[in-house]
């Protein structure tokens, strides 16, 4: 089952939806597949307070619903479905959706985002859905008046710990370095929160519990002379240690950096393949903000438009 489109957008975060708004307003009749997490990572975040234009902040889910409505209003065809394989070197490019339907596209905008990382302990799998989570806003509700731990020292970890402190009785932050990496404002928020206890220079060795997570085995100053192993009693264990770009299906076809992020030409969403553009977190290991994702989504749509005009001109020349 094949379908030909001019502009295919893969992913439904701020980058994908912004690309869809611009591409539909430019009459590119874009088709957007929402992917595994419709609305992207922002649907799992708390209030967004730093997106310009929302003086009181807005919830991630609400913002993504608004972006979707805006794209639909201009005619973007937004569909449920996951891109399961791709041939970006073909002309037109071929993307398989849900393992069965092939979309042939002249221009492709990859906006597949990034996914939360885990520590890699077998216990994370053992207790998946039974106390282990990488999304406080999705699962925090289950931990009202309980004790939880958040792993990580970046902005995400601080945000998750702050959010959880509004629900749980106590929140541990397990930070492997002697200091936080998060921005000063976020650091202040957790360090001044009486419900949050910081465990600096601490790593997690494992989890325990008969019916779901009941505690974590930790180690302070791992590998040092004064290394100290200890346990904490917790009901929930939240990972907030960064993200992995969702580029597995493009490996070997498109230039990626060492961490798997799509390489783009500086200041543009252009990849090494003509007609393939990357927008948002899938190509951004540095800024990773909703506003930067939206900005690159806009750029990707504008570049797609230019590319499609060039393609039409070249085809016109050939047919003469
Ligand atoms: P970061 O990469 O900034 O931080 C990851 C944290 O996890 C670091 O403290 C890191 O430790 C720790 N970590 C990584 N691997 C391990 C491991 N194996 N074991 C233990 N700890 C580990 O990721 P974030 O997701 O926090 O943030 C990503 C980007 O998004 C940042 O640019 C951030 O500013 C931004 N952001 C902004 C927000 C906002 O403005 N509201 C909210 C959330 C994120 P170490 O420091 O030792 O490397």
Chain-wise SSE layout:
Layout: E1 2-10, H1 14-25, E2 31-33, E3 47-48, E4 58-59, H2 60-73, E5 77-79, E6 83-87, E7 93-97, E8 101-110, E9 114-116, H3 122-126, E10 132-133, H4 136-139, E11 147-151, H5 155-165, E12 170-174, H6 184-191, E13 196-199, E14 202-208, E15 215-220, E16 228-233, E17 236-239, E18 243-245, E19 276-278, H7 290-318
Parallel strand pairs: 1-2, 1-8, 2-5, 8-19, 10-17, 11-12, 11-17, 12-13
Antiparallel strand pairs: 3-4, 6-7, 7-8, 9-18, 14-15, 15-16
Helix pairs in contact: 1-2, 1-7, 5-6
The structure holds NADPH dihydro-nicotinamide-adenine-dinucleotide phosphate (NDP).
Shape: elongated
Radius of gyration: 22 Å
Number of DSSP-assigned strands: 19
CATH C-level category of the largest domain = Alpha Beta
How many DSSP helices? 7
How is the CATH topology of the largest domain named? FAD/NAD(P)-binding domain
Fraction of residues in helices?
Answer: 25-40%
Give the CATH architecture of the largest domain: 3-Layer(bba) Sandwich
């Amino acid at each position: 089952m094949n379908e030909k489109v001019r502009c295919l957008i893969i992913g439904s975060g701020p980058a994908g939806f912004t690309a869809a708004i611009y591409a539909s307003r430019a009459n590119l009749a874009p088709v957007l597949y929402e992917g595994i997490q419709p609305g992207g990572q922002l649907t799992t975040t708390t209030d967004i307070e730093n997106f310009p234009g929302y003086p009181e902040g807005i919830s991630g889910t609400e913002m993504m619903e608004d972006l979707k409505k805006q794209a639909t209003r201009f005619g973007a065809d937004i569909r449920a479905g996951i891109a399961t394989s791709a041939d970006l070197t073909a002309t037109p490019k071929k993307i398989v959706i849900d393992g069965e339907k092939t979309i042939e596209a002249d221009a492709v905008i990859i906006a597949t985002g990034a996914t939360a990382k885990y520590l890699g302990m077998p216990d994370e799998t053992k207790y998946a859905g039974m106390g282990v989570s990488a999304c406080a806003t999705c699962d925090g509700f289950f931990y009202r008046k309980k004790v939880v731990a958040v792993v990580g020292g970046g902005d995400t970890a601080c945000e998750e710990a702050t959010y959880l402190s509004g629900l749980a009785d106590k929140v541990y932050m397990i930070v492997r370095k002697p200091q936080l990496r998060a921005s000063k404002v976020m650091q202040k928020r957790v360090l001044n929160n009486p419900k949050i206890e910081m465990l600096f220079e601490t790593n997690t060795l494992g989890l325990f519990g008969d019916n779901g997570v009941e505690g974590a085995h930790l180690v302070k100053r791992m590998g040092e002379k004064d290394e100290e192993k200890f346990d904490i009693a917790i009901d929930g264990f939240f990972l907030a240690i960064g993200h992995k770009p969702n580029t597995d299906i493009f490996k070997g076809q498109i230039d990626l950096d060492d961490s798997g992020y799509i390489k783009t030409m500086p200041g543009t969403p252009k990849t090494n393949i003509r007609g393939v553009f990357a927008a948002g977190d899938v190509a951004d290991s540095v800024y990773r903000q909703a506003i930067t994702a939206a900005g690159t989504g806009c750029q990707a749509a504008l570049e797609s438009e230019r590319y499609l005009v060039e393609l039409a001109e070249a085809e016109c020349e050939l047919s003469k």
